[in-house]
Amino acid sequence: MTTPADVPDVRDPEQPGRLLTIERDALIPLLRDRAGEDFALPVAACPGWTVRDVLAHCSAALTRVAEGRFEEGVFWPEANDRDIAERADWSDARVVDELERGMGAAGPAIAGAGGRLDGLALGEWVHAGDVRDALGEPGAYGGAGLPDALALLARITRERGHVPLHADLDDLDEPLRLGESGGERTPGRFIGDGPTLVRLYAGRPVDGAPAFELAGVEVKELNIYG
């Protein structure tokens, strides 16, 4: 990949939707080829949830965004559990159908939200990686969407004033700058591949991931969902 690593903080409103549609085109055909028992597999990154539960959560969230339905308490754990329960009697195919529509339809709404929902798009992409990981499929937290995911992650961590980190990635030609300390803290350094960096920032297990180096920052400090 040759995408510039030190991306500017100017928001690309189409980027979150583009990330979702790229993942849609890769994930949905994979899901349609899976047997029913695969949807009952546990997802290590989401304790207590199966593949089907993660897909139902994602499809519900993206549908809500596309339709502009933001009730009080939306996206809290209780609401997520309720969304999953409401789809308990759906067929697996119906859940996948809703997910496919949501991954395409949510983009314009996210683009028009001024950045408030950009993190949600990144989170849904990460969940797609969770599903790939649970199914033993290659490309978890990577694939064609990785350049947009890394650029989005870098911007979000800088906007949030997250711990500073310079990442030397196998996937990019130049170091990626994440987080922002205003000079108060020397940036940490990561050496490894993009999917492993995503795992660390998303609080996902790195067991079995390619070897990496991390210095000047603790793993727990990187987790944007912690």
UniProtKB/TrEMBL annotation:
Protein name, UniProt field: Mycothiol-dependent maleylpyruvate isomerase metal-binding domain-containing protein
InterPro entries for this protein: DinB/YfiT-like, Maleyloyr_isom, MDMPI_metal-binding
Source superkingdom: Bacteria
Short name of any one Pfam family annotated for the protein: MDMPI_N
Lineage, top ranks: Bacteria, Bacillati, Actinomycetota, Actinomycetes, Kitasatosporales
Limits of the Mycothiol-dependent maleylpyruvate isomerase metal-binding domain: 23-106
Organism: Streptomyces cahuitamycinicus
Gene Ontology MF terms in the entry: metal ion binding
